[in-house]
Every structure is written in structure tokens, then in C-alpha cells.
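Reopening: C-alpha cells for the phosphoenolpyruvate complex, inputs below.
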Amino acid sequence: MIISMKKFATKEEVEHVCERIREFGFKVHSIVGDERVVIGAVGVGDVTPCLEMLEATSGVETAVRISAPYKFVSREFQREATRIKVNGAEVGGDEFIVMAGPCSVESEKQIMETAEGVAAAGARILRGGAFKPRTSPYEFQGLERDGLKLLAKAREATGLSIVTEVLSEKDVEMVAEYANIMQVGARNMQNFALLKALGKCQRPVLLKRGMSSTIKELLMSAEYLVAHGNPNIMLCERGIRTFETATRNTCDIAAVSVLHELTHLPVILDPSHATGRRSLVPSLARAGVAIGAEGLIVEVHPCPEKAFSDGAQSMTLETFRDMMRDLKPYIELWKSSRVAATAAV
Ligand code: PEP
Ligand code: MN
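Re-run output (same inputs, fresh job):
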């Protein structure tokens, strides 16, 4: 059940409702917004008597049954798409958002050159890892705080916002000092300690799908963030592991539509990690626009052959610019179908 309290319901009314819900044997998770409190009631058993009680309780606006185990992020709970403001840009709004940049922040020259190039090509958000989750402990692990500082410098120079990965709960505060969006990588999608820490942090989160995770598990991880206080979440399809070896991962393109049915959260497609090969990125990016994803996250490097990580899937600045140019007519169609979809809600 999700109980939406009336705008400006009193603290006593909220507490009374929580108490009554507990008496019915349900656990309570409240989200305190600027104007209203929303309460999630979770548990087993018939909710009908509790719903009837809530209808007659003062301060309650609506109480609805939600069957999905991910309650706050479900479409049942919220029909309208979530829009997330990131500086001047809005993810999930009327603009198709492109995030682009290197896999790893390597040097001032590299990040500045990339930031300027991707901004000129139309990207709104600069990506770049300062903490890198590498399979081998001997590979480049990232510049850490120095990398974050370089990202902040690139933001100052270009006006781009920053999305960057946070690997560990102990680094949440530090990364939040510099980042506009906190990235949770595929390997950490079910790092529940990290999710809880990010729940308390007010920065938006880009939550990447684990490489062996189901869509339901992705949504349960998003629910962790909301249940711990942070509703500003973008989901990211970045390919999953299958028996296929022709691509680095198998892009589950249908996941974008499935997610749109199941959740109100925006969905970002990562055609770089989904394929592992730069030649495949433009066509998959087009597929992402066509299927109605809210944006893309793409790896770009001024000299991919010298990249410290993921060079094979990184586009050059020139090929990225060409891709952005070629995507324009598709993005125009995306805009008109979006207007139609919003009108239909
Ligand atoms: C990345 O964005 O560079 C990254 C490590 O992605 P993923 O977590 O999807 O593998
Ligand atoms: Mn990468």
C-alpha cells in the first residue's frame, strides 16, 4: 500500500497513521517531501481492512494497493514520468539528454579536450570515472579526488554537469562534493550498503543494471534508494551477460520498454558498455532514441588507442560529433512522440 498524506498534514496526523498501519501488521517507510509525506506500508496479508481504516482517517488523501514489491518506483504508484533537474538540464523531461566522456579521467588535458568536444557536439552531461571498478587489481584504478577536481574544472569551463561513479559508501560524501549525478556501476547495483548511503545523499543517482541482474532486481535496488530517502533516480541499461561473445555484453533493448511499463523513472541507454565496440555504438544509440529511452551515456576519448580503460568502445571526438549530427532527425521524432505520450497520460 502507498498512503499519500494531504498537503501539509500535521506531524501528529502522520504519526497516528503510521501507528495504525503498524497495528495492522505492516512495516512503515515514510518519504518526507517538501509539501507532503508519502507512506509505504509493506508486509504480507490482506490489505483491505487497513485500506478501509485509512479512508476514514484524518490527514490521509489517498491510499492505494500496490502489488509490485518495488512500490515507490512502480508505475502503479506514480503514473507521470519522473523528471530530474540537473543544473539547467532535466532528465526525463522534454529534452533527450546525452551524457558523454571518457571511461576514466586521466589528465587535465584529456578531460578538458573531451569536455569541450562533447559540449560542442550537444552533450549536456560529462561522464568520467575517478574511481574505477577494474576486474584486475593491476589495472588503472582512477585518479580519485584529483580526478574529481579535474571534472569540476571541466564543468566550470564548459557548463556541463558531471556524472561520475562512486564505488564505496565511504566515498559518498567526497564524490557528492564534486558530482551532479552519482553513478552506481553494474558491479555495485546490489551493494546495499552503498545504496543506503546514497539514499541519504540528495544528489541524483544513475543506477546501472548489474550484468547478471533481472529487471526486477534493478527495480528493487532503485527501491532501496527511495526507501532510504532519495527518489531522484535514473536507470541505465548497459547490457547483460549472455552466451553471445560477438559483443562485450548483450544489449537488452526491450528492457527500456519493459521499464517504461513498470516504473516512472527515466531510462538511459549505454551503447558503449552494451557492445564493447565503437563501430556498433551509433546504431545502438539510434535504437535507444527510437525505443524512447530518456537519454544516452556514451564513452568518448580524444585518442581511444591511448585510453587507460575501455579504448575499444570509446568514440573519437569526431565520430561522436558525427553521431550527434546523425541522431538529430531521430531526436526530433522522439520529441514529437513524447509530446503525444504526455498528452495521453
Ligand atoms: C563505466 O561506466 O565506465 C562502467 C564501469 O560501467 P559499468 O558499471 O556499466 O560496467
Ligand atoms: Mn567504461
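Residues 103, 129, 133, 185-187, 208, 238, 273 surround phosphoenolpyruvate (ligand 1) (CB under 6 Å). The chain has two domains: 2-64, 84-344. Marking as resolved unless the reporter disagrees.
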